[in-house]
Design goal:
The complex is a heterodimer of chains A (about 400) and B (about 200). With about 400 residues, chain A is of the alpha/beta class. Chain A is built from 18 helices and 13 strands. Helix content of chain A is about 45%, strand content about 15%. The longest helix of chain A is centred in the middle third of the chain and has 19 residues. Chain B is α/β, with parallel strands linked by helices and about 200 residues long. Chain B has two domains: about 120 residues, D-Maltodextrin-Binding Protein, domain 2; about 60 residues, Winged helix-like DNA-binding domain superfamily/Winged helix DNA-binding domain (Arc Repressor Mutant, subunit A, Orthogonal Bundle), CATH 1.10.10. Chain B is about 55% helix and about 10% strand. In chain B, helix 1 crosses helix 5 and helix 5 packs across helix 6. Chain B is elongated, with a radius of gyration of 25 Å. The chains are: A alpha/beta (about 400), B alpha/beta (about 200). At the A-B interface, helix 3 and strand 7 of A face helix 3 and helix 4 of B.
Chain lengths: ~400, ~200
């Protein structure tokens, strides 16, 4: 056994690969002595990772990039040798907003362009009638949820900084906030969308996979300095998480995985709710309507666990689009280098080689194909933006 | 704001005792304009209504992420946070995270006015956790004593020992097994439950 490792996580289903790696003894089999530490805020996870109280963490992919760029906080370079999940978020709206959007929709209700255009008509009608602006909840300024909501509504012409109010809320508060009418909609990861549906206070309008085919969600985040000093530990962690990701994706293991995640020290929700997410079979309305997607949350299949620098580049492009980061070649290079497929390949004995040359692996429903070699050109095609001049 | 006026400090903490300890400490140090928020609903609008210069929040509070959005002006954010107080100083980040507290400066206040506030928060938070630890220890000592008394009773009855002899037996067993007396006593209670 090596020295004890402390790994921070937020109780969400996409922490599965870490939780299962420890619970099923995959980390121990690698000679690792891992203690998982449950945290209450992304700010805490970031700070405890940055100052060394955590050796690694379950972290929002954009926070890893923001930390490496010194945005919103001190600059601490982070590397991500393993991607803990692709997709997994959903947009849930209140019954009233759902009805308003459906009354305006022209097209398929699962077509994000149709819903975004409908939303823009709802927003315009509310403005004319002098109604309060709609409030959308998301989890963190540097979050996939923030960018996914913005990308979606801006495609329909809704300016997320002018036409609506976008607020940060901790995931466990989302359901109560939509129930009490403080927010009209939110974008969050599992299990919170399902819980809102079960309580009858929200309807799932979109899976994030409607908006982006592949969206890097959470990463295994490690301080760059620590990873350089402890390459064997990093490789062992990657191998253990990889085994866990493969285990999670086997249909015959899903019930067991759901039970492990459901335990109070992990995510602390009903195993049945966890199972819905793992199976990609989600109840989207309290009337029992089920919607299935094979892309709801990808943990280990379709190469999901291999960090893809194109994803990092896309997230950086969103930071630039919404005025969180200035555009520069240096910042772009730093952001892209946070995702480390080389460390992943080395740990697993893969030959690697495909370093972000797969073209548009993001697959957004609107705008041109994403070209990581030309972020400025890509962003120029979007009308609604907050770019820093 | 005049240079000598006391900055307005908002404490966001769901623990009323800890907030009171902190508030008292700040007042003693001459910071008279201190407000405590214990209700997390509509936190952002409450903060705006108070319009503070400094926000202090405990790290057990999930609402900390709400404050992080104040780094950027938006429809929801009117007066942004200029900085995370300890941004420039790794040692004070360490100290504040260890103590379980974090502080943010709202735009407009000079950074050097912050140091004494943060130091005070750290020391009061540490004092509070010490108090909490002592309380927990006292509680568990009390429970141990009850368990030991019951285990002694069982030993006296089953083995015909006096109270002193029963205690000596517990103590020597604990020493031999390298365990606490309370743990040995608990296993006697468990065993006697099972054998009932």
């Amino acid at each position: 056994m090596t020295k004890p490792l402390h790994i921070g996580f937020i109780p969400l289903i996409d922490a599965a690969a870490l939780i299962v790696a420890v619970d099923k003894g995959f980390t121990a089999a690698e000679g690792l002595d891992v203690t998982l530490v449950r945290e209450v805020s992304w700010s805490n996870v970031r700070d405890k990772l940055n100052i060394g109280l955590f050796d690694a963490a379950h972290l929002l992919a954009p926070v890893a990039i923001a930390s490496s760029l010194g945005l919103g906080h001190i600059r601490v370079p982070i590397v991500a040798p393993f991607n803990l999940g692709l997709n997994g978020n959903a947009i849930t709206v209140s019954p009233a907003l759902h009805a308003a959007i459906m009354a305006e929709i022209d097209g398929d209700r699962f077509d994000p362009m149709a819903t975004a255009l409908a939303l823009s008509r709802v927003v315009a009608a509310r403005r004319r009638s002098g109604a309060e602006v709609l409030t959308f909840g998301m989890t963190f300024p540097f979050s996939t949820h923030n960018y996914q909501l913005r990308f979606w509504m801006a495609a329909g012409g809704v300016d997320p900084d002018e036409d609506i109010r976008l607020v940060v809320l901790p995931p466990p508060y989302m359901v109560d906030s939509i129930a009490s009418g403080q927010i009209d909609a939110f974008c969050v990861g599992a299990p919170w969308n399902s819980i809102a549906v079960d309580r009858g206070v929200g309807l799932i309008l979109h899976f994030v996979s409607d908006i982006l085919v592949r969206a890097a969600e959470k990463v295994l985040a490690i301080r760059q300095g620590w990873s350089e000093k402890n390459p064997e530990l990093v490789a062992a962690l990657v191998r253990a998480a990889f085994r866990a990701a493969e285990f999670i994706e086997q249909p015959e293991n899903r019930a067991e995985v759901a039970r492990i995640l459901a335990r109070p020290e992990h995510v602390g929700v009903d195993a049945e709710v966890v199972l819905r997410t793992l199976e990609g079979r989600l109840k989207i309305s309290s009337d029992g309507t089920i919607r299935e997607s094979s892309r709801y949350l990808l943990v280990g299949r379709e190469d999901a666990s291999r960090p893809d620098p194109v994803q990092a580049a896309w997230l950086y492009a969103q930071m630039v689009r919404w005025g969180q980061a200035a555009i520069s070649h240096e910042a772009f290079a730093i952001a892209k280098a946070v995702f480390r497929p080389d460390l992943y390949d080395a740990a697993l004995g893969l030959r690697g080689g495909v370093d972000g040359s797969r073209g548009d692996s993001v697959g957004a429903f609107a705008g041109p194909a994403f070209d990581p070699a030309d972020v400025a050109g890509y962003l120029a095609s979007f009308k609604v933006s907050r770019r820093v001049p | 704001m005049a240079a000598e006026s006391s900055p307005k400090i908002v404490i966001v903490d769901e623990s009323p005792i800890r907030a009171a300890i902190l508030q008292e400490g700040l007042r003693e140090a001459g910071f008279t304009d201190v407000v405590h928020i214990s209700e997390m609903q509509s936190l952002l609008s409450r903060i705006y209504a108070l319009d503070p210069d400094v926000i202090v929040i405990d790290l057990e509070n999930p609402s900390r992420d709400i404050l992080e959005q104040m780094f950027q002006v938006s429809r929801a954010v009117r007066r942004p946070i200029a900085m995370f107080v300890d941004q420039s100083d790794a040692a004070s980040i360490q100290a504040s995270v260890d103590a379980g507290v974090s502080a943010y400066i709202v735009d407009g206040l000079k950074k050097e006015r912050l140091k004494p506030i943060l130091d005070l928060c750290i020391s009061r938070f540490n004092a509070f956790s010490k108090l909490q630890d002592e309380l927990d220890r006292t509680k568990s000592a009390l429970e141990d004593r009850k368990v030991i008394d019951r285990a002694k009773g069982i030993l006296m009855k089953l083995k015909g020992l006096t109270e002193d002899e029963a205690y000596v037996l517990l103590r020597s067993t604990a020493m031999r097994e390298k365990k606490k007396i309370g743990e040995i006593a608990q296993s006697i209670l468990t065993a006697s439950e099972l054998l009932k």
